[in-house]
Amino acid sequence: xxxxxxxxxxxxxxxxxxxxxxxxxxxxxxxxxxxxxxxxxxxxxxxxxxxxxxxxxxxxxxxxxxxxxxxxxxxxxxxxxxxxxxxxxxxxxxxxxxxxxxxxxxxxxxxxxxx
Amino acid sequence: xxxxxxxxxxxxxxxxxxxxxxxxxxxxxxxxxxxxxxxxxxxxxxxxxxxxxxxxxxxxxxxxxxxxxxxxxxxxxxxxxxxxxxxxxxxxxxxxxxxxxxxxxxxxxxxxxxx
Lengths: 115, 115
Hints:
The structure holds two protein chains of two kinds. Chain A is an all-beta fold. Chain A has strands spanning 5-7, 10-13, 19-24, 31-38, 42-50, 53-56, 65-71, 74-79, 88-95, 105-106, 110-114. By secondary structure, chain B is mainly β. In chain B, the strands form three sheets. In chain B, strands 2, 5, 6, 10, 11 and 12 form a six-stranded mixed β-sheet that branches. Chain B has a four-stranded antiparallel β-sheet with strand order 3-9-8-7, with no helix packed on it. In chain B, strands 1-4 form a two-stranded antiparallel ribbon. In chain B, β10 (88-95) and β11 (104-105) form a beta hairpin.
């Protein structure tokens, strides 16, 4: 079975440009998470969805970040405009419910570099 | 305050040595879940174990074992007879509120196993 699929795997862009990261969760999973990984801050939760509805976006750094989940099989994380400090690896993860129900499955990540 | 503390930033061991990775967590909840994930050099996060707070029995899976002690709020991970393939960053994570909150990760411990 396919795991969590993220695209692009690598993105290099210039400051001020719009960046869109995409995620396809595992079929049947109803919870989706976006995490950001940096050396300084480790793995931080940005936002999570349950049944396509955003539940907690308190981890989203600022208004430049937005996330959508238009259907059960697709989510996007958009940064507009991007800044060098947004450079990080962005992980999408999905699960059947939350921790009480099962494990979290991660995608391979999208490495973003903003010049 | 950090909810999950992995005090060891980096550990180096020689192949075949045993190594223990420490994890200390903080929560006021009586029901919660603890996890360990492995992040090999390729970057993806791989699930290793999920443990309910009511199950204090230690677990062994091959060369891996986990010691859960509620009295000290610790969930330590031991690799016996380490191998080069064990080289990775290992993350401990916590889900509170009976597992109904997203995972909060520690900063990780980078393990290097030298041949």
